[in-house]
Structures are given as C-alpha cells and as structure tokens.
C-alpha cells in the first residue's frame, strides 16, 4: 500500500502541515493558524496503531518515521499542549504582540516561528533515524529563539542570547555524537545492540547535546532566564513538549536493555541526582513564580536522567522503566503546562466572571501544584508509584534517603510557588480596595473589551485541569491512589511550621531569598569567561613583546627587520611562494604519494 493511501501518511503530514502553514502565518493575520497546525498530530496520535512505520527513501538519506511506545505517548500530550497553547496565542497574546510594528507584525512573526517550532518538535518525536531526529531537534531549538525574544524587552533579549548560545552548543555536540554513532553502527537507525558497541566519546557527545535541552546541571543556565522572559504560550510548550524531546533522545540513542553498563549507570545517576537536588534549594530562593517553576523543571529532568541511569545498570527492567518514565513525562508535561497557562490567566487584569473566575484559577493552580509535588489522589502520586520497581532494586543504599529528601524539597518548592501567587492576589486586592471607585482608566476599558478573547483559553485550561485530575483514576490501580501520602504530609507540616514561625516574626530563611539570581551559576561563569579572556590577551601581548625584544637583542641594524619577519612567519611565507621552492615541494609530495600507492598495492 502506498504511503499516501494508508493512515501512515499522517506521520509525514503531522510535521509537514505546520511547516507549510508557517509562511502563511507570517503573511496573513490569522491568529488561529497555529491551532490548525496541531490538528494532524492530534489525529495521528489517536488514530495510528502502535509501532506504525513510514519509510521514505527519497527524503534526505532515507527517512524512517514511526511511533514507538514512548513516541506515541509523547506525540499525544505534545499535540494536546500545542493545540492548547495555540488557543492562548490567539486569545491572550493578540493585544500585546500586535503592537510591535505595523499591521500586526509582532503577532504574525510569533505565529510563524511558533509553527516552525511545532513542526520541528513533532518531526523529532516521529523521527526514528538519526537525521530526522536531529533536523527536527535543530528546527525546534532555533525557532524557539524567536519565541523567547518575542516581546523585545531587555530581559527577553538577554535570555535569548544565552538561550541561542547554549542551543548552538547543544546542537553541535548532538550532531557530532549522532554522526559518530551512525558511522560506528553503519546505519541511520541503530538498535540498542549496535549502540552498545559505539565509543564512550560518542555517547558522551549525545548526552551533552541532549543535556542542554533537558537543562541538566551545569548546562541549565539558559532555562531560569528563558521561562519568565518568554510569553506564556511559548513557556508552556518549552517547559512541557519541547523539553521532553531530550527524554526521547535518551531512550532512542542510549543502549538501554542491550547490556549492563555499570560505569555509565553510576555516572548518570549521580548527575541526575545532583541536578534534582541542586535545583530545589535554588528555586526556594526565588521571588518570581515562573522562575520557581523553571527550577522545578530542572529538578524533574534530573530525576528522569537518574531513572535512565538506573535502566542502564538494570537492563531487565527496561520495559517497566520505559513505561514509568513515559507516564512521568506525560504527567509532568501536562501539569507544568497547566501551571504556566493558569498563571498567565491569573495575571490578566480582568477575567470573565470577575473574582469568581480568579478564585477558580487559584484553586486550580493549588491543585496543580499539589499534583506536581506528588500528593495522594493525583497523577503525581501515580507517577512516583510506577517508578518504585526501578528505585527499590537500585544497588546503592544511599540513593533512597536522598530521593526522600528530594520529595520533601519538591513539596516545599510548590508551597513556595503557591505562596508567591497568594501574595500577588493579596496585593491586587489591596490595590483595588484603596483605589477610589470613580477611578477607571482607559486601559481598563480597553481590557474589558478583550474579555471575550479570554473565554476560550479559560475553557481550555479548565479542560486540561480536568484531564490531569482524571489520570490516576483512569490509568492507575487503586493501590497507587494513596501512595506518597506520608511524605506529602510531613513536607506540608514542615511548610506550615515555617509559615507559622514567620508570622510570629521568626523567619531566618527570609535572608536567603534573592541571594542567588535566576541562572545561579551564570554570574560566576561570566566572571570566569572575562577572566580567561583577560588572561589570554595578557599572554598574547606578553608573547609579542618578548618576541620583539628578543629580535632586537639578537641582531641589529638591517638584520633586525629580517629577524622580525622570520619570527612572525612572513619570511617563511615569502620563500614558500617562490616557484622553485613550491615546485620542489610539489614534486616531493608527488613522489611520496606514488610510493604510498605502490606500497599499498603490494
């Protein structure tokens, strides 16, 4: 059956369709084009059976598209989130970006790059060969730069520069690693058995390239600056759909299930655990709820890398481990997108329904925060329950106590996030109370006219919260519903005690708030880079001064210039340009090449 007469053609259409819509979005003022771009992906995820394949030998060096177990789940929640984020683009972002240039230039430009990023992410999800995966990965990463700098603020441009630099670093490393993997395995679709035979350097390059996208410490510097700078719709997909491409890369390009790799297993466990534990206290020091969520994402991706390391050391648990990791990724993606989108709605000056809608948003955000913390009766508890087979068989006794500490810190981080939102709500209520009733600005009148546009995003977000609430009841056994109860209760009790002491005037932890800015290690890295640049310039200038002084000391008069030319290489270059010298060198190289050919033939 031809590829275009079978349902498998959806594997091609799901990323080609948004790619074709991108130039139309740049030209036309159709704010709903991004939503149309996500529809084929949603249809493919719901219609295509497991292990669907589509081979296109005419595309690039031979393209293979398909849906493996992990890819199908990632495609499903990615399509849902791209569609929902597109609704937010059409509803909430129209008034802000349309003011950047004439004829809605800012909105059209954002829509075009939004569709390009969507196409790249979906292509990477269904790309089973190294070229398809990398090309989709690169398109997604580069197009996302335009989403980060969309509003043109100083903070957005600064975050965009750092994001672009880190993205280029990751893509170069990933390209080198995947090319090396493909060359050593002699195929564009290496199996785990073939991946087990590639060099450690190749795997290290792949891990570095994917580690930038996953924001693994110390490659995480871009993420805490990017999330608060980007528009809410862009942040929602950056923190959910796009970051999970790194997880797919780990599952596809590491030799999981083929052999036991104790060295790599321990290394990934330590790096993942360090990332998970490092991000949590840094997040507690932040004042911006979006930055708090950014450090939460870093911690969660570190935990997923830890699980990947455990599977490298326990190949017999790969089947159970992949299922656990994929559900954990889906839970985190849906919940994190819900938090960012809900926060974007909550920050609107006016909402349909007034304070009633705002209270509903506050309740929904509180529920999502508890879900991300792994509270009982939520998808977070089910996600932790599914990871138990991997964790309980871990060969290191020190791992479980540290994971317990990570669980408590995660609850504290979500409590910090909710506390920051409540304080914002209190400040808004106080400002409205102190303002005279007659004060009614022109901006507020304009905002009231935008209320109907907020209704679709509000409905979409409410449906997402309902979907997240239903996950444990649909997919989880009854034994998983109350898991993680003790840890959640202990952590919430500790947070309540800290809050009570703070209200009584004893709050030593307040001195830590704001001590580390978003990006934590970034100032140190920048100072180190400036120091290295200064040292390099000093050494180069010292070498030039020493060379000139030596030349003047050795010779004098007319020979000084000859010495300087020789030291700088100019004299050598002049001699080599002479026909007699060049001809002799060419003849010597020719004789050497002929000798090597004759020796090879013998």
Automatic annotation (TrEMBL):
Protein's name according to its UniProt entry: Formate hydrogenlyase subunit 3/multisubunit Na+/H+ antiporter, MnhD subunit
MF terms (GO), sorted A to Z: lyase activity; NADH dehydrogenase (ubiquinone) activity; oxidoreductase activity
Family annotation (InterPro entries): ComplexI-like_HydComp, NADH_UbQ_OxRdtase, ND/Mrp_TM
Transmembrane stretches, start-end: 6-25, 32-50, 70-90, 110-126, 132-150, 162-181, 201-223, 230-251, 263-280, 292-312, 318-339, 360-382, 402-422, 458-475, 481-502, 578-599
Keywords: Cell membrane, Lyase, Membrane, Oxidoreductase, Transmembrane, Transmembrane helix
Location of the NADH:quinone oxidoreductase/Mrp antiporter transmembrane domain: 129-387
Pfam family name, one: Proton_antipo_M
One BP annotation, GO: ATP synthesis coupled electron transport
Subcellular location(s) of the protein: Cell membrane; Membrane
Membrane topology summary: Multi-pass membrane protein
One cellular component term from this protein's GO annotations in UniProt: plasma membrane
